[in-house]
Amino acid sequence: MEIEVAIAGGHGKIGLLLGKLLVEQGHTVLGLIRNPDQEDDLHAIGVEPVLCDLEADDDVGEAVAGVDAVVFAAGAGAGSGVERKRTMDLGGAVKLIEAAREKGIGRYVIVSSMGAADPPAEGGDAFGEYLRAKAAADRALVESGLDYTIVRPGMLTDEPPTGRVEIGSRVERAEVPRADVAAVLAAVLVAPNTIGETFELISGETPIGDAVAAL
Ligand SMILES: NC(=O)c1ccc[n+]([C@@H]2O[C@H](COP(=O)([O-])OP(=O)(O)OC[C@H]3O[C@@H](n4cnc5c(N)ncnc54)[C@H](OP(=O)(O)O)[C@@H]3O)[C@@H](O)[C@H]2O)c1
User: Fold this and answer.
1) What is the pTM of this model?
2) Where in the sequence is the domain holding 129, given as residue range(s)?
3) DSSP string of the chain?
4) Which of 99, 107, 124, 212 lies 20 to 30 Å from 30 when distance is taken between CA atoms?
5) How many domains does the chain divide into?
6) Ligand 1: residues within 6 Å at CB?
7) CATH code at 35?
């Protein structure tokens, strides 16, 4: 099955890995970016760049119109403060939910985070706010009526892919290479059994295809 996918955070580390993988698998990919300097990098891997700022733009529907699925792989990033956890990690994810609903796109896969299942009620500085933003975005997606999958990876690394993971509703706190997260996202997008599922993801022993099929 070949599908058309829009990746929010198209030039992010996971976004680039996912875009390249999906193109190699024969899918059509739009990469949402806010900086036109990043267009060439997307063209180089066969991803069509679309300019869209998930914080500054009021309505991002036109950027994703016509695709079969959206993936939220964007984020304010480690160096950002409390405010951008709200405007980007929560607000950007919600804006993409609204766009999917407006344009009749059924499928939404979100890169959440380990820790979003039980964020601190208050405090924790920017990291506490990040986990609360991730948790709130996940709740909004569940309540949206869209065909969602919520993927909560552990600490991301830039190690090479292993092709093997551990997936479960709750798993031990551990690392996972971004490349393996991207491979899980690509598998999830074409696996209807993952619709309505929320899971944590770390490196493990199970081949990605088997782990996703078992959800
Ligand atoms: N780091 C971890 O250990 C960890 C663990 C679990 C989950 N996560 C989550 O994993 C996801 C991806 O991680 P990553 O390492 O691939 O992230 P990344 O490399 O920092 O990429 C984030 C992307 O979001 C984009 N972005 C930021 N603000 C935007 C805006 N207003 N409009 C549109 N795009 C915007 C950035 O674009 P610019 O280049 O324009 O800034 C960038 O392309 C994030 O959701 C993160 O929260 C991270």
Assistant:
1) 0.98
2) 4-213
3) ---EEEEETTTSHHHHHHHHHHHHTT-EEEEEES-GGGHHHHHHTTPEEEE--TTT-S--HHHHTT-SEEEE-----TT--HHHIIIIIIHHHHHHHHHHHHTT--EEEEE--TTTTS--SS-SHHHHHHHHHHHHHHHHHHHTTSEEEEEEE-EEE-PPP-SEEEEESS--S-EEEHHHHHHHHHHHHT-GGGTTEEEEEEE-SEEHHHHHHT-
4) 212
5) 1
6) 9, 11-15, 34-35, 53-55, 73-77, 88, 92, 111, 113, 153, 155-156, 178
7) 3.40.50.720
